[in-house]
Every structure is written in C-alpha cells, then in structure tokens.
C-alpha cells in the first residue's frame, strides 16, 4: 500500500464520518484544497440506476451559473457559405471541409466540437479519431445544432455535458478551489437540480444514493442531500 504523505493524512483527519450540509462541505473542502496549485472542485453523484437498461440511462447538459473556471477551446464545423465574421469572433476555430481535413490528419487542438446537422454525415468517417476523445458532436451533448450563435455563447458561459457511467455515477467538474463559497454553492445546486429534473423514466423509488464533493488532491466529503433540495 502506498504511504500517505503528511498533507494527505492531515486533510483526511479533518473529515468526520458523517453527512455535511452544503455550506459546511464547501467550507471544509476549501481548507483541504491546499496543494501548491489551484485545485479543481469535483462532484461525484451515485444514483440508483442501471445504465444497461435504456430507460435508466442519464445523459444531459447544464449551464453552471458560475462556470467551471476552465477555459475551453471551441471549434465549429459548418458549411463554408454560412461562416460569418461574427461566428469567427465567437469560435476559437471555425471551418468546413478544411476543418475536416485538419482533423483527418490527427490535428485536434480543441476541447469541444460543435457542428451543424448537415455537416454530420461528413464527420462520420472521423469517429475513430473523435470518438475516443469524447469529441464527436451529438444532439444529447448539445453540440449538434442549427443555432450556432446561441450554442457557442452557452458553452462559453459554462455549459457542460454529463452522463452516468456504467456503475450509475456522475462525475462532474463544478469549479475551482479559488471560487467563493457562494459561487460553488450555486453551481452545486444547479448540478443537483439538473440531475433531478432529468431523472430517467425507469427509476423506481430512491433516485440519489450519495453526493460527494472533493478537490483534485483532497479527500471526499459527503453532502446531506436534504439541504440541496432547493
């Protein structure tokens, strides 16, 4: 077993074996986010779902009110004749067949790819490149759209995609350790509400199992769900 360093041991000792209300949890998280860099803040939500059944799968998007604290490069794929100066100013990368050619060469220097529906057939051949990176546009991810302007603004504002993994757990970046407590709380509540509002139809009985938050290098803190029902 790997030996824990002093900082990790001290941080773990700060966590009691109990549920914390959301304000306590956020305050405690910030005291344990004491690495020598600004740590990310993550939420890990365990749900009573079995994603192998189609009516128990969860995949959606939400706009975090205070953003993620992480700047992402956004590429847009659309017909050449529809590209305008406004789109060029909003997107980090924009193109048509030329962008497809660039991706074909393995040059993928963006974090999000947005496409118009009419360009999707041309992207099909790039599944082996984009798929493993999680960059293939899809309607469920909100990245296939006819409203490029609105979609770009939403992702710039803090729109994120989330899905439950095969064990029914959602892992989501909700901010940075240098966010204010109130900003982290606002994002946290937005995450809870989005997952609640997108409850799969096949779920019976209790939906949420546990809701934990942690920083990149910090210990996990379990939140009392009753305080998040706002």
Automatic annotation (TrEMBL):
One GO term of the biological process aspect: translation
Keywords: Chloroplast, Plastid, Ribonucleoprotein, Ribosomal protein, RNA-binding, rRNA-binding
Localization of this protein: Plastid, Chloroplast
Main location (coarse class): plastid
Molecular function (Gene Ontology), one example: structural constituent of ribosome
Listed Pfam families: Ribosomal_L1 (PF00687)
GO cellular component, one term: large ribosomal subunit
Role according to the record: Binds directly to 23S rRNA. Might be involved in E site tRNA release.
Quaternary structure, from the entry: Part of the 50S ribosomal subunit.
Similarity comment: family membership: Belongs to the universal ribosomal protein uL1 family.
Protein name, as recorded: Large ribosomal subunit protein uL1c
